[in-house]
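Hey, can you fold this?
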Amino acid sequence: MKRFLPYLLALLALIASASAQTLTGTVSNGTTKKPASGDDVVLIKLSQGMEEAARTKADSQGNFTFKLDDNGPHLVRAIHQGVTYHKMAPPGTASVDLQVFDVSKKLAGISVTADVMRFQAQGNELQGIRLFAVDNHSDPPRTQMNDQNFEFYLPDGASVDQSMAMTAGGQPINSAPVPQKEKNRYAYVFPLRPGETQFQVSFHMPYSGQLSVDPKALYGDQHFVVMLPKSMQFSAGAGTSFQSMKDPRQSDALVQVASNTRVGQPLAFTISGTGVLTDESQEASAGQAGGQGQVAGRDSRPGGGLGPPIDAPDPLEKYRWYILGGFGVVLAAGAVYIAKRPRGAIAEFAPSHADASAAPRANPSRSTLLLEALKEEIFQLEIDRKQGHISQQEYETAKAALDQTLERALKRKAPKPAI
């Protein structure tokens, strides 16, 4: 037996080596078009929340290698000049490529595509959401980052309920705006990477039946939008250039738009009355679930869509979902996706941004099974998309729905320390 022991050990080592997976990749600098040599690269395991599994540096050619000790989902994070960039590595992934960008404190190529203020009122409380779609089209592409990276105002007396940020291709994450010295002025300390970044802040405030609002826009907007229930009234301030936008597919909404605004341009308005906006995106998804009632041409992305006007081209068609809901989701669509998809192995999914202040950890409770099932569905949805099993439209609708449901479940859990 002793004579065969070395061979047995060698065989076991060979088997272990064969079963171990290797994840390789490259990090390139999108600003210089060169390898991002020396950047930190972190491997994060997602099977138990967000656990750092390994860390290395990109070599002179921007290459990196990780040995995987399991076949679960991973997230690869590259850190360049203090800003993080991420790429998912689902089970079976052998290689990932990341692109980073040089950081500047101030860039000339920052513009606001849409600035949307949504209001509804019940009793003596006014509820509002302000959403920004910010485009970074710097050339060469760079990331803007500073202590007041994107600033805005809220109405006097507003209390922030929740605030989120989302980079193009990523997931919404909590990102709290920082109050500034000037009253009612806030700033996001969140990187504006090349492409589009969205910010959404929800708030509430006392309401006596009428409110005058001065948005005090700090940036020029392609479209500044105010949205109310039709049961409320809108009155434009002096010197403003609002235009009413009507659409038969959003019958309960009053939408006022000022286009191509400039910094300092008057945008003040007064709202009065009470009313609640109907989430027509859920009605649309319910129609999809039943196979009936889906309006032809209806936008089924998160937040729904007004759909194209009947008689004339609509300049806001590109920004419909900003106006209708921002990060709002179609919960019913997520339920439909879960019901239709075959069950698979349980896996957890974590946000694709390290900018989140904390990643929640589940504690044993009655909601644990629901939480685990939601995480499983989200990750399986990513796999289905990569394998081409679902369309991009189906992916966007179901993904947003599942994300929002998961976020609500996680709010009931105690936060785990930030990584």
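Oh, and this one too while you're at it.
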Amino acid sequence: MGLLPLNLLNKPQKMLDLVAQRQECLSDNIANMHTKGYKRKDVDFSQYLNNGISSNLEARLIDKYGSAPIASAASQSENISTEDELSLMQENYLLYNVAVRQLSSTITEIKTAMNVSANG
């Protein structure tokens, strides 16, 4: 086992990975909105958050914003709305900020622990 508790970085990293994956899906939706037969995709955060990496804040965000199945496909008759996709991108940006703040906070805690142990 190493000296640094790197496993503390797993949860924020997973959240950042999910945000990036969702951004890619939303971008694909906009890029292909006029492609015949294309089905809308999205990422379901709760599917991952319920697998032991959930925090209270992340769970509350999912409760507030809801979720869509990962890589879910809309019916072919459903039109993709640019406004809806851009709105979801804004929501995704907020989730990104939460993940970055959580990662930054974890790194600060690790640095503080290292400084305390070095001075103690």
